[in-house]
């Protein structure tokens, strides 16, 4: 009526494959670090928001209120701290102070930080020739697909090269007798043969050629005309935003070209 089945992996090939998948999953195979978020109480007060000094060596700074791009500090632009004007990622491990400590920041410091952040935001919009209306519109489309972007990026991280080459496949049930498995044959082992075939690439193996993708979008007048009926234009904008944000920083694997077509 019921019961449990426990499957044990005993073959060398199966164990090696599972180990490779585990290493890829935790980020050790291709140099990706494992990030640990640490919450701690600093016990220090904030003063006034500022950008902070730029470290020419880009050394990691934890705590304090001097350097821009630090983590777990105060007053300066960084990550995981409190009282800073805006977030600034310098590429280091993030140390996060507690939410209670961030909530305890005085209201005047929060107000000054918001004003400084808004000023920096407007300056950035001016640099990229983008209006505040354009920024709010983009944020509306981007926010609607943020979860989908993260899901798609996880899929892209786990993609592997598809190139194959013919070589000896060992641990087979049929084929030519493998000289290295003669002793195993005496003990009754079944997978003692080898044969020529195409071997799938290892998980996480580098991709040899960049894949070229074309994103074709309908920009005809009917998209605007019937947007009030089924939101087709808004959904197209969200889809384009999802694809372009998800494929960012994957230029070594994919080259995405958006194209507008009056279909």
Question: How would you describe this structure to a colleague?
Answer:
InterPro entries: VWA8. Residues 44-85 are annotated as: Disordered. Residues 66-84 have a biased composition (Gly residues). This is von Willebrand factor A domain-containing protein 8-like. With 263 residues, the protein is of the alpha/beta class. The protein has three domains: 38-127, no CATH class; 132-162 and 208-261, no CATH class; 166-197, no CATH class. It is 36% helix and 16% strand. It is built from nine helices and nine strands. The chain has helices at 12-26, 99-103, 107-127, 132-144, 146-157, 182-186, 221-225, 227-230, 232-246; strands at residues 38-40, 70-71, 78-79, 95-97, 165-172, 176-177, 193-199, 211-218, 254-261. The chain has a three-stranded antiparallel beta sheet, with no helix packed on it. It has a two-stranded parallel sheet with strand order 1-4. A two-stranded parallel sheet has the order 2-3. The chain is extended and about 80 Å long.
Describe this protein with a few key phrases.
three-stranded antiparallel beta sheet, von Willebrand factor A domain-containing protein 8-like, 3 domains, extended, 263 residues, 36% helix, two-stranded parallel sheet, VWA8, alpha/beta
In short:
Helices cover 36% and strands 16% of the residues.
Strands, total number: 9
What is the approximate shape? extended
Instruction: Kindly provide the radius of gyration, computed on alpha-carbon positions and rounded to a whole number of angstroms.
Output: 27 Å
* Low-confidence runs: none
The number of distinct structural domains comes to: 3
Give the spatial strand order of the biggest sheet.
5-7-6
From the N-terminal CA to the C-terminal CA, the straight-line distance is: 59 Å
Structural class determined from secondary elements: alpha/beta
Give the overall average pLDDT: 80
GO cellular component, one term: cytoplasm
Protein name: von Willebrand factor A domain-containing protein 8-like
InterPro entries: VWA8 (IPR039891)
Organism: Thamnophis sirtalis
């Amino acid at each position: 009526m019921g019961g449990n089945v426990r499957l044990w992996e005993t073959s060398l090939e199966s164990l090696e494959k599972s180990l490779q998948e585990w290493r890829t999953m935790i980020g050790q195979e291709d140099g990706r670090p494992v990030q640990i978020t640490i919450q701690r109480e600093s016990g220090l007060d904030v003063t006034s928001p500022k950008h902070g000094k730029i470290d020419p060596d880009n050394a990691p700074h934890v705590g304090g209120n001097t350097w821009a791009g630090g983590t777990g500090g105060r007053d300066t632009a960084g990550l995981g701290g409190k009282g800073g004007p805006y977030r600034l990622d310098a590429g280091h491990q993030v140390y996060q102070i507690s939410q209670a400590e961030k909530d305890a920041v005085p209201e005047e410091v929060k107000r000054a930080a918001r004003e400084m952040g808004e000023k920096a935001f407007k300056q950035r919009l001016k640099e990229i020739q983008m209006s505040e209306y354009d920024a709010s519109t983009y944020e509306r489309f981007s926010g609607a697909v943020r979860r989908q972007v993260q899901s798609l990026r996880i899929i892209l991280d786990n993609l592997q090269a598809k190139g194959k080459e013919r070589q000896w496949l060992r641990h087979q049930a049929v084929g030519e007798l493998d000289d290295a498995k003669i002793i195993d044959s005496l003990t009754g082992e079944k997978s003692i043969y080898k044969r020529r075939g195409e071997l799938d690439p290892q998980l996480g193996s580098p991709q040899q050629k960049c894949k070229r993708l074309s994103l074709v979008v309908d920009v005809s007048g009917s998209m605007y005309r019937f947007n009030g009926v089924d939101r087709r234009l808004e959904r197209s904008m969200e889809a384009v935003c999802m694809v372009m944000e998800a494929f960012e920083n994957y230029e070594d694997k994919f080259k995405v070209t958006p194209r507008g077509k009056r279909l």
